[in-house]
Design goal:
Distance between the termini: 114 Å
Largest sheet: 8 strands, mixed, barrel
Low-confidence stretches: 1-12, 137-174
Strand content: 25-35%
């Protein structure tokens, strides 16, 4: 409902004060009658500006009495009564103003899409909307308009006296406690309440009954005592009661023996700050301290340890093969596993120790009061013990292990960065020696890490610089004694370290992802070489090429394989793809389908290192394979170890019953060869026949058609 029009000028003439608003949602007009209006985009404002480009509380409109009259006018202020200015500011008739006495026809701009026009009229029908044509003014209308005093006329009549008066009124109204939405109260030095504003009565209904015994006064007079003894007139304190946190600005009014307290409920602000602070210092998935928080805790502990002589241990922990969990079961299962790991590790730590999530599947710990390296080793064994029992993840029972590295303060580093780096170095050493173990940091590990980094950088260059080579090891048929196939094996001709074997750099290629590029390069080179031998008129050989797990998992592996065969011209029956059991069994259903695609191309398939992986017979019969290769670990002691012999017999018997061929690897002696021949092993390879050799040397062997017995 619109307020009634003001009739304070005379009985004959009414004065109407209007504010016409234009914003993105259209135009509307407001009849101004109240003493105070707030304007802004917040819907709680007296006049809501429907635009996201204006401030929540953009301006205040104050009604001011005109001296020596019974009428009034309006002043507009930029911002709110607490002194906070708007973002865009106020522009009155094109000029930026923080405060302005409005005149009839003044245009107020709040933003690029929101403006207003202040109008004083004698009848509501005279209000003009934006875009309305200006009606001509008749002599009668002109006479009628000058028969009452408009605010603009009065301002010109009153001159400087009126301006000074209204500045005084403005200052009084703008600071008037009755208008403040926050509680304000005054007390004298005896503790008696001398004033309470309406906001204080609403916020604290029992304030008048309890008086100075109200909780809001708990710290008030202690703060006043500090003000009396110091040079400041204002101090700030906080008090918490009734589930709320209040901030008090306490002002000592000199000469009046009065204390004024401005009170603000900051509960939501404080809770928001606490949430933001928690999120900034904790991992949201596990609730553990994050990296920055851990560094702060370690810094504080090191400062204390420096004073007390205490030793600290920094533990760097990485879950082994965690990526396999994410890839096979999904990231949600991986997240649940990380949460369970966190709970279990907390249980195994002592009071005062700190655990944090460093990132991904890595955790860091700070162990206090470490007496010796042996003491740290005992704690590390307890940590490893936490992983002995399986983790239940939905319907899956998961066994996982971890690799742990440890550095000790101060012997392994006197700053946070060095301690963590050295613990990380020790952790990677634990992975290198077999995982599921811990390593204490040693200074020579840094030298190893530097060498590893240099080797890694060189490997990137090797792929582009023709430093990688393909060697070939003959595979011999045990009946005829003739070479019937070769296995392609990679070598690295390092510019300073000479010829490197695969075990010296392939692990780096797998860690960096270079194994995919290297694998395709090797496959293309070997296929091209086999075709070149055939084109030279040499006997046609089956070419065995090992595939890494990463390469086999590539979505484009099958089409890339087909392209390589097409580019090199090698017929598919002369290519044999070798895969380990562990590669095939990582995602057995999908991999079986992929293996069938390879077999349909005419390529043969071998299971390499058979007997060292899953050896799942239920899946073995479903695999579309041609060959089982006996791992050299079973061949090495086959003539002396009955267990190795029994395993070899079982593999040969199993393979032949499944109509598969058997190739024995690592044959080095005549006795081994003769025993394998007696077991009806189909083919062999090893140093007894030849080491891996360059393609030119292998071509010479083919030319001579050498029989190996």
């Amino acid at each position: 409902m619109e307020p009634k029009a003001d009739t304070t000028v005379s009985e004959r003439h009414q004065v109407y004060h209007y504010l016409v608003i234009e914003d993105p949602e259209g135009q509307c007009k407001f009849l101004l009658g109240s003493t105070t209006y707030s304007l802004g985009r917040n819907s709680t404002n007296g006049i809501a500006l429907r635009s996201n480009t204006v401030s929540r509380q953009h301006a205040i409109l104050l009604r001011l009495p005109i001296p020596k009259t019974s009428t009034y006018m309006f002043r507009i202020l930029d911002g709110n009564l607490q002194g906070k200015r708007s973002t865009n500011g106020l522009f009155i008739n094109g000029e930026r103003r923080s405060s302005h006495i409005l005149m009839n026809g003044d245009e107020i701009v709040f933003s690029g899409d929101t403006r207003a026009c202040y109008q004083v009229v004698s009848h509501p029908s005279e209000v003009r909307m934006f875009g309305d044509p200006i009606a001509p003014v008749s002599d009668d209308d002109s006479a009628d308009m000058t028969s009452f005093d408009s605010p603009s006329t009065l301002v010109h009549q009153s001159g400087n006296e009126l301006v000074a008066y209204n500045e005084e009124v403005l200052a009084r109204l703008a600071s008037f406690p009755e208008l403040n939405p926050n509680p304000i109260l005054e007390v004298n030095m005896s503790g008696a309440i001398t004033y309470i504003n309406p906001a204080a009565i609403e916020q604290f209904p029992d304030l008048q009954d309890l008086g100075a015994k109200h909780p809001i006064f708990v710290n008030l007079f202690d703060a006043v005592a500090k003000l009396q003894n110091g040079s400041q007139e204002v101090t700030v304190c906080e008090i918490e009661f009734g589930g709320h946190i209040f901030e008090q600005f306490i002002h000592l009014i000199p000469g009046n023996d009065l204390v004024r307290s401005y009170i603000a409920d900051i509960t939501e602000r404080r809770r928001s700050q606490e949430i933001i602070q928690y999120q900034a210092s904790h991992d949201l998935l596990t609730g553990l301290p994050n990296r920055a928080n851990f560094n702060d805790c370690l810094t504080t502990a090191m400062d204390q340890a420096q004073r007390t002589g205490e030793k600290l241990a920094v533990v760097f922990l990485d879950l082994d093969r965690f990526k396999l969990i994410n890839d096979s079961l999904g990231h949600s299962s991986g997240d649940r596993l990380l949460q369970d790991v966190c709970k279990r590790l907390r249980h195994y730590l002592r009071q005062g120790d700190v655990i944090a999530r460093w990132g991904g599947d890595e955790f860091t710990m700070m162990l206090r009061n470490v007496t010796s390296s042996e003491h740290t080793a005992t704690i590390s064994e307890r940590i490893l013990k936490a992983f002995e029992e399986p983790f239940q993840c939905s319907e899956h029972e998961l066994y996982i292990s971890t690799s742990v590295g440890i550095s000790i303060y101060p012997q392994d580093g006197e700053d946070v960065e060095t301690l963590i780096k050295n613990a990380d170095t020790a952790m990677y050493r634990a992975k290198e020696i077999g995982r599921n173990t811990f390593q204490l940091y040693r200074s020579n590990m840094d030298e190893s890490s530097i060498r590893k980094l240099a080797l890694e950088n060189s490997l990137y260059k090797a792929l582009k610089g023709d430093e990688l080579l393909v060697y070939y090891q003959p595979q011999v048929n045990l009946c005829a004694g003739q070479m019937v196939g070769v296995e392609a094996l990679i070598r690295w001709q390092h510019p300073t370290r000479g010829l490197l074997q695969p075990d010296e750099f392939i692990y780096l290629a797998e860690e960096t992802g270079l194994i995919i590029s290297i694998g395709y390069w090797m496959l293309r080179m070997a296929c091209a070489q086999n075709r070149a031998w055939q084109d030279a008129g040499l006997p046609k050989l089956r070419l065995g090429v090992n595939l890494s797990a990463q390469q086999f998992k590539q979505p484009d592996f099958i089409p890339t394989l087909a392209c390589i065969l097409a580019e090199t011209g090698l017929e598919p029956q002369y290519l044999d793809i070798e895969l380990t059991e562990s590669v095939v069994m990582e995602d057995v259903q999908e991999n079986i389908a992929k293996l069938h695609q390879i077999r349909e191309m005419g390529i043969s398939l071998s299971i390499d290192d058979f007997g060292t992986g899953y050896s799942s017979l239920s899946y073995l019969k479903r695999l579309p394979i041609n060959v089982l290769k006996i791992h050299q670990s079973f061949v090495k002691d086959i003539t002396t170890n009955p267990n190795d012999l029994a395993i070899a017999i079982s593999i040969v018997t199993l393979a032949h019953n499944l109509n598969l061929k058997v190739i024995a690897e690592g044959v080095e002696t005549v006795d081994q060869m003769e025993l394998l021949r007696s077991l009806k092993c189909d083919e062999m390879q090893g140093f007894l026949f030849n080491r891996p050799i360059p393609p030119t040397e292998l071509a010479e062997l083919l030319v001579t058609q050498r029989c190996f017995w």
